[in-house]
Amino acid sequence: MELEQVLEGARALVGRNRSALVGSIGEGGYPNIKGMFRVENHGLKDFFFSTNTSSRRVAQFGQDGRACLYFVDFEKVEGLMLIGDMEIVQDPAVKSRFWQDWWTRYYPLGPDDPDYSILHFRAHQGNYYHSLEKKWFEIR
Questions:
Q1: Could you tell me if 73 and 17 are in contact, meaning their C-beta atoms sit under 8 angstroms apart?
Q2: Structural contact between residues 51 and 99, judged by C-beta atoms closer than 8 angstroms
Q3: Interatomic CA distance for residues 120 and 84, integer angstroms
Q4: Residues 6+ apart with CB under 8 A from 99
Q5: CATH number of the domain residue 65 falls in
């Protein structure tokens, strides 16, 4: 697969998936995986998720920001792993920009709820798998 085909396939796979499997480093250095809904992404570089500040994931990323995302289409036997760093965002302007009114069921105090955080993932590398081929690539 040529790099442009890989990037096109990877972007299409992300576009078909509202959620991603998010990997963090847990207690004792063991990997932890959780499914999370993405709020927004900018290509394959930047991804944003909403979560509870009190969550285990926020505590883990506060200790170690190394992370990965995985998008999968089981029917097409296609996958994309992105490796990068996760940042916990508490900036009120950023939180307001992503706020959705129906989230009050999770964050009853609205966008200023102290238990509402945004996670910002920045990818450095990707590994795309499709048609029995895999291709590692750098993300700029």
A1: yes
A2: no
A3: 10
A4: 110, 111
A5: 2.30.110.10
Q: Give just the sign of the alpha carbon dihedral 137, 80, 61, 63.
A: negative
The residues, any chain, with a CB within 8 Å of residue 6's CB and separated by 6 or more, are: 128, 135, 137
Segments forming the whole domain that contains residue 15: 3-138
Confidence class for position 140, pLDDT limits 50, 70, 90: confident
Residue 82 has which token pair? 């992105």
Q: How far is Cα of residue 35 from the mean position of the Cα atoms in its chain?
A: 9
What is the tally of helices (H) and strands (E) in the chain? 3, 7
Number of structural domains (the chain) is 1
Cβ(83)–Cβ(116) under 8 Å?
no
The three-state secondary structure class of 26 is coil
The string of pLDDT tens digits covering residues 72-104 is 999 999 999 999 999 999 999 999 999 999 999
- pLDDT, tens digit, for every residue of 41-62? 999 999 999 999 999 999 999 9
